[in-house]
Amino acid sequence: MIDCYHLNVSLKILLNISDNAFHFAIVEGNELGYFRVDNDGRITVIHPLDREHTMTHYLVVQLSDGIAPYPYHTIDCVVTVDVLDINDNHPIFISPTEYQVEENSPMRKIIGKIKAVDADEGRNSMVSYRIMPESLPKAEFIIDAVNGDIIVSSIIVSK
Fold this sequence. Notes:
CATH architecture of the largest domain: Sandwich
Strand content: 25-35%
Strand order of the largest sheet: 1-4-5
Structural class: mainly beta
Helix content: under 10%
Oligomer: single chain
Radius of gyration: 28 Å
Largest sheet: 3 strands, antiparallel
CATH topology of the largest domain: Immunoglobulin-like
Number of strands: 10
Distance between the termini: 69 Å
Number of domains: 2
């Protein structure tokens, strides 16, 4: 059996920044300009991130010392930015939305099924179904809230 652990690793660098001899820069992973790093090493998001577009950003932050023309040293640190999901997508129906039912169909007969998907993740991607009361005042049908089955709930009689 292999044990797996999730570790949060941080690097604390104590610097005397006041002499401006140190410089932080994002040298990789910021091609679209979503992030900024200041001279204290704080990374800031400066443009909105979209998890559905990019779930994880990998930044290489470089710290250098010295002031030109003097020799300087650099150290790189890979920073992983995981974008958490928010409920920002609407469900989309992916199945037919028109069905036919025969007159005098028995109660509890399944006449169709609707299916919707949501591009969000986890709980934010869950969909449930219901028939709006104003759209079906006689309640001839019900819908299974979980699986989308459309079910006859009263005898259908033609007029």
